[in-house]
Design brief:
There is one protein chain. This protein is of the alpha+beta class. 43% of the residues lie in helices and 20% in strands. Among the domains are: 122 residues, Heat-shock cognate protein, ATPase (Actin, Chain A, domain 4), CATH 3.90.640; 126 residues, Heat Shock Protein 90 (2-Layer Sandwich), CATH 3.30.565.40. It has ten helices and nine strands. It has a six-stranded mixed beta sheet. A hairpin with a 4-residue loop joins β5 and β6. α2 packs across α5 and α4 runs antiparallel to α5.
Protein backbone atom coordinates (compact mmCIF):
# COMPACT_ATOMS: atom_id res chain seq x y z
CA UNK A 1 0.00 0.00 0.00
CA UNK A 2 1.18 3.52 -0.74
CA UNK A 3 1.80 5.66 2.38
CA UNK A 4 -0.72 8.28 1.19
CA UNK A 5 -3.44 5.62 0.90
CA UNK A 6 -2.58 4.26 4.29
CA UNK A 7 -2.91 7.73 5.78
CA UNK A 8 -6.50 8.01 4.52
CA UNK A 9 -7.36 4.74 6.21
CA UNK A 10 -5.55 5.78 9.36
CA UNK A 11 -7.57 8.99 9.62
CA UNK A 12 -10.65 6.82 10.17
CA UNK A 13 -9.09 4.83 13.01
CA UNK A 14 -9.48 5.80 16.64
CA UNK A 15 -5.98 6.08 18.06
CA UNK A 16 -5.51 4.41 21.48
CA UNK A 17 -4.74 7.18 23.95
CA UNK A 18 -2.12 5.11 25.73
CA UNK A 19 -0.02 5.13 22.55
CA UNK A 20 0.45 8.88 22.65
CA UNK A 21 3.20 8.22 25.17
CA UNK A 22 5.02 6.02 22.67
CA UNK A 23 4.98 8.74 20.02
CA UNK A 24 6.14 11.35 22.51
CA UNK A 25 8.98 9.12 23.65
CA UNK A 26 10.18 8.69 20.07
CA UNK A 27 10.37 12.45 19.57
CA UNK A 28 12.13 12.91 22.90
CA UNK A 29 14.62 10.17 22.07
CA UNK A 30 15.60 11.93 18.85
CA UNK A 31 16.11 15.17 20.78
CA UNK A 32 18.24 13.39 23.39
CA UNK A 33 20.41 11.87 20.67
CA UNK A 34 21.05 15.29 19.13
CA UNK A 35 21.83 16.80 22.54
CA UNK A 36 24.27 13.98 23.32
CA UNK A 37 26.09 14.67 20.05
CA UNK A 38 26.36 18.39 20.85
CA UNK A 39 27.68 17.66 24.35
CA UNK A 40 30.26 15.25 22.99
CA UNK A 41 31.54 17.85 20.52
CA UNK A 42 31.70 20.48 23.28
CA UNK A 43 33.62 18.12 25.58
CA UNK A 44 36.09 17.28 22.83
CA UNK A 45 36.67 20.97 22.18
CA UNK A 46 37.15 21.69 25.89
CA UNK A 47 39.59 18.80 26.24
CA UNK A 48 41.61 20.09 23.31
CA UNK A 49 41.83 23.53 24.89
CA UNK A 50 42.95 22.04 28.21
CA UNK A 51 45.71 20.10 26.50
CA UNK A 52 46.93 23.23 24.75
CA UNK A 53 46.92 25.13 28.04
CA UNK A 54 49.03 22.41 29.67
CA UNK A 55 51.34 22.44 26.67
CA UNK A 56 51.86 26.17 27.06
CA UNK A 57 52.51 25.86 30.78
CA UNK A 58 55.24 23.28 30.16
CA UNK A 59 56.97 25.57 27.67
CA UNK A 60 59.05 28.30 29.24
CA UNK A 61 62.42 29.97 28.87
CA UNK A 62 65.22 27.50 29.71
CA UNK A 63 67.48 28.43 32.63
CA UNK A 64 71.13 27.37 32.57
CA UNK A 65 72.00 28.60 36.05
CA UNK A 66 70.50 29.05 39.49
CA UNK A 67 70.62 32.81 39.24
CA UNK A 68 69.22 35.06 36.54
CA UNK A 69 70.60 38.38 35.46
CA UNK A 70 68.70 41.39 36.69
CA UNK A 71 67.89 42.38 33.11
CA UNK A 72 65.80 39.18 32.52
CA UNK A 73 62.04 39.49 32.44
CA UNK A 74 59.96 38.05 35.25
CA UNK A 75 59.13 34.37 34.39
CA UNK A 76 55.41 34.93 34.96
CA UNK A 77 55.43 37.89 32.55
CA UNK A 78 57.25 35.82 29.92
CA UNK A 79 54.72 32.99 30.18
CA UNK A 80 51.83 35.40 29.91
CA UNK A 81 53.32 37.04 26.81
CA UNK A 82 54.00 33.65 25.22
CA UNK A 83 50.47 32.48 26.00
CA UNK A 84 48.97 35.68 24.55
CA UNK A 85 51.08 35.31 21.42
CA UNK A 86 49.89 31.76 20.87
CA UNK A 87 46.29 32.80 21.46
CA UNK A 88 46.65 35.52 18.80
CA UNK A 89 48.23 32.99 16.47
CA UNK A 90 45.33 30.56 16.91
CA UNK A 91 42.81 33.38 16.49
CA UNK A 92 44.38 34.41 13.17
CA UNK A 93 44.18 30.85 11.90
CA UNK A 94 47.94 30.27 11.72
CA UNK A 95 47.52 26.67 12.76
CA UNK A 96 45.22 24.48 10.70
CA UNK A 97 43.40 21.45 12.13
CA UNK A 98 45.71 19.19 10.11
CA UNK A 99 48.84 20.82 11.58
CA UNK A 100 47.55 20.39 15.12
CA UNK A 101 46.65 16.78 14.39
CA UNK A 102 50.11 15.91 13.05
CA UNK A 103 51.85 17.63 15.98
CA UNK A 104 49.80 15.72 18.51
CA UNK A 105 50.35 12.41 16.73
CA UNK A 106 53.93 12.50 17.94
CA UNK A 107 52.91 13.57 21.44
CA UNK A 108 49.94 11.35 22.30
CA UNK A 109 47.41 9.10 20.57
CA UNK A 110 44.59 10.57 22.63
CA UNK A 111 45.33 14.00 21.21
CA UNK A 112 44.99 12.57 17.70
CA UNK A 113 41.55 11.16 18.44
CA UNK A 114 40.28 14.45 19.86
CA UNK A 115 41.54 16.52 16.94
CA UNK A 116 40.26 13.94 14.46
CA UNK A 117 36.75 14.00 15.95
CA UNK A 118 36.52 17.79 15.90
CA UNK A 119 38.04 18.11 12.44
CA UNK A 120 35.83 15.41 10.99
CA UNK A 121 32.67 17.32 11.83
CA UNK A 122 33.87 20.77 10.85
CA UNK A 123 36.25 20.60 7.89
CA UNK A 124 35.51 18.78 4.63
CA UNK A 125 39.02 19.22 3.20
CA UNK A 126 40.45 17.82 6.44
CA UNK A 127 38.29 14.69 6.16
CA UNK A 128 39.27 14.18 2.51
CA UNK A 129 42.96 14.34 3.41
CA UNK A 130 42.53 11.97 6.37
CA UNK A 131 40.74 9.41 4.19
CA UNK A 132 43.93 9.14 2.11
CA UNK A 133 46.27 8.52 5.06
CA UNK A 134 47.41 4.86 4.98
CA UNK A 135 45.93 2.88 7.85
CA UNK A 136 42.95 5.18 8.35
CA UNK A 137 41.15 3.91 5.22
CA UNK A 138 37.43 4.44 5.77
CA UNK A 139 37.39 6.11 9.20
CA UNK A 140 36.56 9.42 7.55
CA UNK A 141 33.84 8.07 5.26
CA UNK A 142 30.93 10.04 6.76
CA UNK A 143 30.99 13.58 8.10
CA UNK A 144 28.73 16.53 8.72
CA UNK A 145 29.01 18.88 5.75
CA UNK A 146 26.28 21.30 6.89
CA UNK A 147 25.23 22.02 10.45
CA UNK A 148 22.92 24.82 11.49
CA UNK A 149 20.37 25.62 14.16
CA UNK A 150 17.62 28.23 14.28
CA UNK A 151 15.13 28.80 17.07
CA UNK A 152 13.28 32.04 16.57
CA UNK A 153 10.09 33.23 14.98
CA UNK A 154 7.92 30.46 13.59
CA UNK A 155 10.60 27.76 13.33
CA UNK A 156 12.79 25.61 15.53
CA UNK A 157 15.30 24.04 13.14
CA UNK A 158 18.05 21.53 13.79
CA UNK A 159 19.99 20.33 10.74
CA UNK A 160 22.96 17.96 10.54
CA UNK A 161 23.45 17.13 6.86
CA UNK A 162 25.94 14.32 6.16
CA UNK A 163 28.27 13.66 3.28
CA UNK A 164 30.07 10.46 2.27
CA UNK A 165 33.79 10.87 1.63
CA UNK A 166 35.53 7.84 0.14
CA UNK A 167 39.02 7.47 -1.32
CA UNK A 168 39.81 4.59 -3.61
CA UNK A 169 43.45 4.17 -2.73
CA UNK A 170 44.34 1.79 -5.53
CA UNK A 171 43.06 3.88 -8.43
CA UNK A 172 42.86 7.36 -6.95
CA UNK A 173 39.47 7.78 -8.65
CA UNK A 174 36.62 9.67 -7.05
CA UNK A 175 33.68 7.60 -5.81
CA UNK A 176 30.82 8.16 -8.26
CA UNK A 177 28.34 6.39 -5.98
CA UNK A 178 29.29 8.64 -3.04
CA UNK A 179 28.84 11.72 -5.24
CA UNK A 180 25.42 10.46 -6.30
CA UNK A 181 24.34 9.86 -2.70
CA UNK A 182 25.67 13.22 -1.54
CA UNK A 183 23.72 15.04 -4.26
CA UNK A 184 20.54 13.22 -3.29
CA UNK A 185 21.01 13.98 0.41
CA UNK A 186 21.51 17.68 -0.32
CA UNK A 187 18.40 17.71 -2.51
CA UNK A 188 16.29 15.93 0.12
CA UNK A 189 17.44 18.24 2.91
CA UNK A 190 16.78 21.42 0.93
CA UNK A 191 13.40 20.35 -0.47
CA UNK A 192 12.16 18.97 2.86
CA UNK A 193 13.03 22.21 4.64
CA UNK A 194 11.34 24.33 1.96
CA UNK A 195 8.20 22.18 1.87
CA UNK A 196 7.88 22.16 5.66
CA UNK A 197 8.12 25.94 5.82
CA UNK A 198 5.59 26.33 3.00
CA UNK A 199 3.13 24.05 4.83
CA UNK A 200 3.47 26.03 8.04
CA UNK A 201 3.04 29.36 6.26
CA UNK A 202 -0.12 28.02 4.63
CA UNK A 203 -1.42 26.87 8.01
CA UNK A 204 -0.58 30.23 9.59
CA UNK A 205 -2.41 32.10 6.84
CA UNK A 206 -5.49 29.89 7.27
CA UNK A 207 -5.34 30.33 11.05
CA UNK A 208 -5.63 34.12 10.87
CA UNK A 209 -8.13 33.95 8.00
CA UNK A 210 -10.37 31.89 10.29
CA UNK A 211 -10.31 34.61 12.95
CA UNK A 212 -7.29 33.56 15.00
CA UNK A 213 -5.49 36.29 16.96
CA UNK A 214 -1.81 37.07 17.51
CA UNK A 215 -2.24 36.19 21.17
CA UNK A 216 -3.64 32.77 20.27
CA UNK A 217 -0.82 32.22 17.78
CA UNK A 218 1.89 33.22 20.25
CA UNK A 219 4.66 30.63 20.76
CA UNK A 220 3.45 28.34 18.00
CA UNK A 221 6.44 26.88 16.19
CA UNK A 222 7.15 24.19 13.66
CA UNK A 223 9.95 21.81 14.65
CA UNK A 224 12.08 20.75 11.69
CA UNK A 225 14.95 18.30 12.00
CA UNK A 226 17.42 16.79 9.54
CA UNK A 227 19.75 14.24 11.08
CA UNK A 228 21.69 11.10 10.27
CA UNK A 229 23.19 7.97 11.78
CA UNK A 230 25.84 5.58 10.54
CA UNK A 231 24.14 2.24 11.14
CA UNK A 232 27.07 0.05 10.11
CA UNK A 233 30.55 0.49 8.70
CA UNK A 234 33.54 -1.71 8.05
CA UNK A 235 36.26 -1.84 5.39
CA UNK A 236 33.81 -2.89 2.67
CA UNK A 237 30.27 -1.86 3.68
CA UNK A 238 28.63 1.40 4.75
CA UNK A 239 24.99 1.68 5.88
CA UNK A 240 23.70 5.23 6.45
CA UNK A 241 20.31 6.52 7.63
CA UNK A 242 19.03 10.04 6.87
CA UNK A 243 16.04 11.20 8.95
CA UNK A 244 13.78 14.19 8.22
CA UNK A 245 11.19 15.21 10.85
CA UNK A 246 8.59 17.96 11.09
CA UNK A 247 6.09 18.57 13.85
CA UNK A 248 3.44 21.16 14.69
CA UNK A 249 -0.23 20.06 14.95
CA UNK A 250 0.74 16.67 13.52
CA UNK A 251 4.19 15.11 13.44
CA UNK A 252 5.62 13.18 10.51
CA UNK A 253 8.95 11.60 9.71
CA UNK A 254 10.60 10.15 6.66
CA UNK A 255 13.76 8.09 6.46
CA UNK A 256 16.15 7.36 3.64
CA UNK A 257 18.74 4.57 3.57
CA UNK A 258 22.02 4.23 1.71
CA UNK A 259 23.81 0.88 1.71
CA UNK A 260 27.09 0.95 -0.17
CA UNK A 261 29.67 -1.59 -1.26
CA UNK A 262 32.78 0.55 -0.77
CA UNK A 263 35.07 -1.88 -2.59
CA UNK A 264 33.06 -1.89 -5.81
CA UNK A 265 31.64 1.63 -5.42
CA UNK A 266 28.01 0.60 -5.85
CA UNK A 267 24.71 0.38 -4.00
CA UNK A 268 23.90 -2.86 -2.19
CA UNK A 269 20.58 -4.66 -2.70
CA UNK A 270 18.65 -7.04 -0.48
CA UNK A 271 19.80 -9.90 -2.69
CA UNK A 272 23.42 -8.84 -2.15
CA UNK A 273 23.16 -8.97 1.64
CA UNK A 274 20.73 -11.90 2.07
CA UNK A 275 21.28 -14.09 -0.97
CA UNK A 276 19.07 -15.20 -3.86
CA UNK A 277 16.32 -16.48 -1.55
CA UNK A 278 15.83 -13.11 0.13
CA UNK A 279 12.15 -12.69 -0.88
CA UNK A 280 10.99 -15.91 0.76
CA UNK A 281 13.19 -15.33 3.82
CA UNK A 282 11.96 -11.76 4.36
CA UNK A 283 8.28 -12.51 3.75
CA UNK A 284 8.30 -15.39 6.21
CA UNK A 285 10.03 -13.34 8.91
CA UNK A 286 7.84 -10.25 8.50
CA UNK A 287 4.58 -12.23 8.75
CA UNK A 288 5.88 -14.21 11.72
CA UNK A 289 6.91 -11.07 13.59
CA UNK A 290 3.67 -9.22 12.80
CA UNK A 291 1.61 -12.06 14.25
CA UNK A 292 3.92 -12.32 17.23
CA UNK A 293 3.70 -8.61 18.01
CA UNK A 294 -0.08 -8.50 17.67
CA UNK A 295 -0.46 -11.49 20.00
CA UNK A 296 1.76 -9.86 22.62
CA UNK A 297 0.22 -6.36 22.46
CA UNK A 298 -3.36 -5.51 21.45
CA UNK A 299 -2.26 -1.99 20.50
CA UNK A 300 -0.06 -3.39 17.73
CA UNK A 301 -2.15 -3.08 14.56
CA UNK A 302 -1.13 -4.00 11.01
CA UNK A 303 -3.27 -3.61 7.89
CA UNK A 304 -4.49 -6.96 6.57
CA UNK A 305 -4.03 -8.79 9.89
CA UNK A 306 -6.34 -9.47 12.82
CA UNK A 307 -9.04 -6.90 13.51
CA UNK A 308 -7.49 -4.62 10.86
CA UNK A 309 -7.79 -7.34 8.23
CA UNK A 310 -10.56 -5.58 6.31
CA UNK A 311 -9.29 -2.01 6.71
CA UNK A 312 -6.82 -2.00 3.85
CA UNK A 313 -4.26 -4.08 2.08
CA UNK A 314 -1.23 -4.50 4.28
CA UNK A 315 2.07 -6.27 3.89
CA UNK A 316 2.22 -8.68 0.96
CA UNK A 317 5.85 -9.06 -0.09
CA UNK A 318 9.24 -7.39 -0.18
CA UNK A 319 10.91 -6.45 -3.45
CA UNK A 320 14.04 -4.72 -4.72
CA UNK A 321 12.65 -1.34 -3.58
CA UNK A 322 12.05 -2.29 0.07
CA UNK A 323 14.09 -0.08 2.40
CA UNK A 324 16.66 -1.70 4.67
CA UNK A 325 19.81 -1.03 6.65
CA UNK A 326 22.59 -3.04 8.29
CA UNK A 327 22.58 -2.88 12.09
CA UNK A 328 25.70 -2.47 14.21
CA UNK A 329 25.76 -6.24 14.76
CA UNK A 330 25.59 -6.99 11.03
CA UNK A 331 21.88 -7.86 10.94
CA UNK A 332 19.68 -6.88 7.98
CA UNK A 333 16.74 -4.74 9.11
CA UNK A 334 13.72 -4.09 6.84
CA UNK A 335 12.05 -0.68 7.16
CA UNK A 336 8.47 0.24 6.23
CA UNK A 337 7.34 3.92 6.25
CA UNK A 338 4.50 5.04 8.49
CA UNK A 339 1.04 4.36 6.97
CA UNK A 340 2.46 1.79 4.50
CA UNK A 341 1.62 -1.42 6.41
CA UNK A 342 0.25 -0.06 9.70
CA UNK A 343 -1.67 2.92 11.13
CA UNK A 344 0.22 6.18 11.52
CA UNK A 345 0.52 5.96 15.30
CA UNK A 346 2.67 2.84 14.81
CA UNK A 347 5.26 5.04 13.14
CA UNK A 348 8.01 3.54 11.00
CA UNK A 349 8.07 -0.23 11.47
CA UNK A 350 11.19 -2.38 11.37
CA UNK A 351 11.86 -6.11 11.15
CA UNK A 352 15.23 -7.78 11.70
CA UNK A 353 15.37 -10.70 9.27
CA UNK A 354 18.85 -12.19 9.61
CA UNK A 355 22.61 -11.64 9.38
CA UNK A 356 24.26 -10.05 6.39
CA UNK A 357 25.87 -12.54 4.00
CA UNK A 358 29.47 -11.39 3.61
CA UNK A 359 30.93 -14.31 1.66
CA UNK A 360 32.03 -12.96 -1.69
CA UNK A 361 31.03 -9.38 -0.90
CA UNK A 362 33.18 -6.59 -2.29
CA UNK A 363 35.93 -7.12 -4.81
CA UNK A 364 35.73 -10.94 -4.50
CA UNK A 365 31.94 -11.13 -4.88
CA UNK A 366 30.70 -14.37 -6.35
CA UNK A 367 27.85 -14.53 -8.81
CA UNK A 368 24.67 -15.87 -7.21
Amino acid sequence: MRPEDGKKVYDQIEIPKELELTVRRSVEEAARRREARRKEEAENSAERDRREEKDLEKRGPERTGLEMESTEKDPLTEKQEEKQGRQRQRKNGARSPIYRLLRRTAAAAAGVLIAFTVGLNTNQAFAENMSRVPGLGFLASVLTVRSYHESEGDYNIHAEVPGIMQSQEETGNRSLQADKVNEEIERIADSYMAEAKAEFEEYKEAFFAAGGTEEEWNNRQMNISIDYEVKYQDEAVLSLELTAFKGWINASEERHYYNLDLSEDRELTLQDVLGSGYVELCNKEVVRQIEERMAADENQIFFGFGRAGDMAEGFTTVDENTDFYISGTGEVVLVFPEYSIAPGYMGTTEFTVGPMVKDGMGGDRKEK
